[in-house]
Amino acid sequence: VQLQASGGGLVQTGGFLGLSCVNSGTIARINRMGWYRQTPGKERELVARINSDRSTNYADFVKGRFTISGDSAQNTVYLQMSSLRSEATAVYYCYLNTCATRENYWGQGTLVTVSS
């Protein structure tokens, strides 16, 4: 599994940003893919995830503003973020959880900065 995240950057409060994550490695079956985020001094927290049955889960702080989608055939996951607030500033990590071992694999992280 080799996850490559992209799409981070600087955006103004209230703006929109989209993140992408592609797995270029080989994997038999994916249990879920998703996004976590982390700010300095804080633990990594779940933002959103998409499961193998295409159901989705969102953290309460992003419901209605962020949308996760994925393409299991291409091992990709996307995160569309709208109405961004300054507290969304963080490093966003994509992850992939496997069916075989339930192990999480992580991408390198992409920085999102929301300026007020």
Strand content: over 45%
Indicate the structural class: mainly beta
Report the sheet with the most strands, covering strand number, pairing sense and barrel closure: 7 strands, mixed
Beta strands, count: 11
Measured on Cα atoms, how large is the radius of gyration?
Answer: 13 Å
Q: Helix share of residues? A: under 10%
Note the overall shape: globular
Report the average pLDDT across residues: 94
User: What is the N-to-C order of secondary-structure elements (H for helix, E for strand)?
Assistant: EEEEEEEEEEE
Low-confidence stretches: none
Distance between the termini: 37 Å
Number of helices: 0
Explain what this protein looks like in three dimensions.
The chain has 116 residues and is mainly beta. The chain is 0% helix and 55% strand. The strands form two sheets. Strands 2, 4, 5, 6, 9, 10 and 11 form a seven-stranded mixed β-sheet that branches. A four-stranded antiparallel β-sheet has the order 1-3-8-7, with no helix packed on it. Strand 7 (66-71) and strand 8 (76-81) form a beta hairpin. The chain is globular and about 45 Å long. The mean pLDDT is 94.
